[in-house]
Amino acid sequence: MLVNWMKRKVVLSVIMAAIMIIAVGCQAVGGVDLNQMLKQTLKVTSYEGSQTFEFKLLMEDEGLDGGSAEETAIFDLISHIKLTLDDIKVKDAANMSLKGKLELGTKSIGFSLAMNEELAVLNLEGAKKPIVLELGELASSGLFGEILGTDFSDGTHTEGTVTAVPDKAEQESLAKTGQQLIETVAGYAIENMPNPTRLKVSPAQETVRGETVNAMHVQAELTGKEIYTWVKSYMDALVSDKEGLHEMLTTVYELIQSQEGVLESAGIETESIFGSIPEEEDQKAMIDDAVDEVVQGISDLKQEMEQAEKEDPNFIDLFFNDETYVKADLFVDSKLDIRKSVMEMSIKPTVIEDEEDMSFSPFKGVWMKATSEKSNVNGNVIPVEAVQSKGDLTADQLSEMEGYQVLRQFKTDSVAYDILRNQMHISRQQIQMHPEYSYNPPIVTPAGITLIPLRDTADRLGADLKATAKGKSITINDFATSTVIELKSGSKQAIINGKAVNWSFPVTAVDGITYVPARDFVKSLGGKVYWEDSYDDEKVLVIEREL
């Protein structure tokens, strides 16, 4: 229904806006300029600290009753996730190091990461070798490159064709401009952000990373209805500040213009970013149009919210109840640096069952909590050096591996190995063949023996197949199981790792395609074969193995 779709769209928009609320406002409270405090966070370039992020899926009482063991195992991993980062050392955007652990349900994996302009080195608990991501010049392209979707490291990006890679000075200029872009857009958003309804500021002493800090304690909280009202007030403020919006967009265009030469030398057309860059006399008119479009978009969203309220008077109570909330505790020092923060959010809509959709969902909401402590803010920070050693595993190598090959990079008694193999099943291989729609379909003989195309099957299992010119002699080398199979066309006999066995049907050519008995071939490679129902009420052949 249109109304239900509108409600969902409005709810999503409002909840996303709620995530932005971090105890901020456009006015000073209790002697703390919250506006300036938020802007100050954008200027933090170096620090030492620790952070945690925790996420939980809120479940109905029935939970996953009736779910398979595999579904339950996956759910146990993702229903409660906690990322703990200790000993964070950030020198700048490209140079940093940290230690931490990732907790998935009851399982925990430790790790450390060191990064510089050239590479990131990840040491993962249970991995036999460090994993290296080669960054090259990507890191030095900075925020501006990320904003434009540009990778200067290999001469490619998302728009156009690169003709030259910017030199270091140009990259530094791009990075600086990128930071200015962030500050400009965020500054406009912060200036117009209204105070939360419940906001308290008081002096406090707080221990931050072993140091006693004289700080101002900022506390803020919004529940469902307050979030909804706050978002509407924010929309009103944004729509009313056309002058600020015009100034912000003007600055953005000027920043883009300042880098026009560098971008064009790199093959990036500026008009592909924000449309064509106009002459000075046309710029004001174009920005006026852009302001009108932004204002109209915000106004349309607010109108949709009001329409949803009108269509269903219980709309706000259903979606924005007291169990949906966002709250924050911040400790701000005399330089307006946020030294410690605890932010928590719960999204738990109480939605009436849709008569058109009676499906049951085991989830009733999500809960998140993030904490952070910082010291030596914008000071001299020396991170652990990122060093690549001979034999380290690169991310490119890892991405090209089969699942079983990835698994072999981990110790068999490690938590990472257990998760990858037994919960995520990355070493599982499955092939489906439809008797009618597959390019080379399986064949069932009059005696009921199922035949499968040899080369297609071997290729999809990652095995190597070699045959003589006339296909009389065939050798299959399956690296996953260290199995070598030797076959001859027209013969039932197979030589498996040097041992002769008789199969149920001879190797047979059908329309130039070599077929072998499915169960015999797959069994020799440690797999199983079965038929299952498909979407068109027919049977589909499934070949499956887990290494």
From TrEMBL:
Q: Which Pfam families match?
A: Cu_amine_oxidN1 (PF07833)
Q: Which residues form a coiled coil?
A: none
The name under which this protein is listed is Copper amine oxidase N-terminal domain-containing protein
Segments forming domain Copper amine oxidase-like N-terminal: 439-534
Please give the superkingdom of this protein's source.
Bacteria
